[in-house]
UniProtKB/TrEMBL annotation:
InterPro entries in alphabetical order: Endo_dU
Organism: Natrinema salifodinae
Signal peptide region: none
Matches recorded under Gene3D superfamilies: archaeoglobus fulgidus dsm 4304 superfamily
Pfam families reported in the protein's UniProt record: Endo_dU
Entry protein name: UPF0215 protein SAMN05216285_2341
């Protein structure tokens, strides 16, 4: 992959403030080139336990407003306590491939959703969860990550993840977005 190819990484940060739960989670978007140069940041928020994370990610893509971004890399499929992302909707709105890259083995989210929600809230989340593409494991730099992709075939998705992961197992756009989200969360806390 050419060094100037860009991806938008999206990650979240949520921290309790002074022992109090908050109802918002900070999302950050980081435009990062394949050669590890950060080329832009944007911020938004979503509701903890809500259903607005997909809209927040779409707003981040719009806010960045970068037609040169070729991929959207998400650091979760269920940020902000099961605020599930609809990867197909993000792909359609962004008009570019979307990859969710996660970092822990899991038996899936269904049992957790069933413990946390009921009725319509549960059914809506289960429908979004079941519509996600299959999660595949991928070895990157001797680490295992788990990838879901919309808008490109599995081999291409593997190439994208590896190209944006020069060291370790976390793709650089997601790593930078996570750092930015944590910094923004800490900064916002200073005003409370």
């Amino acid at each position: 992959m050419k060094p100037g190819v860009r991806a938008l990484g999206v990650a979240e940060s949520y921290r309790e403030r002074d022992g109090r739960d908050r109802n918002r989670s900070t999302l950050a978007g980081a435009v990062v080139r394949a050669d590890r140069v950060c080329d832009g940041l944007a911020y938004d928020a979503c509701t903890v336990g809500g259903t607005d994370a997909t809209d927040a990610v779409i707003r981040l893509v719009d806010e960045v407003g970068r037609p040169d971004v070729r991929y959207v890399l998400l650091g979760a499929v269920a940020p902000a306590w099961y605020n599930l992302l609809d990867l197909s909707r993000i792909h359609e709105a962004a008009a570019r491939p979307v990859l969710a890259v996660t970092f822990e083995a899991s038996d899936g989210l269904a049992a957790g959703l069933e413990d946390a929600f009921s009725g319509t809230e549960l059914e809506q989340r289960l429908a979004t969860y079941r519509a996600l593409p299959a999660r595949r494991d991928l070895t990157v730099n001797d680490e295992t990550v788990y990838v879901r992709a919309v808008g490109l075939d599995p081999d291409e998705a593997d190439d994208v993840v590896r190209s944006f992961t020069p060291v370790g197992g976390r793709p650089e756009p997601i790593r930078v977005a996570r750092l930015a989200a944590r910094a923004a969360d800490s900064y916002a806390r200073s005003f409370e």
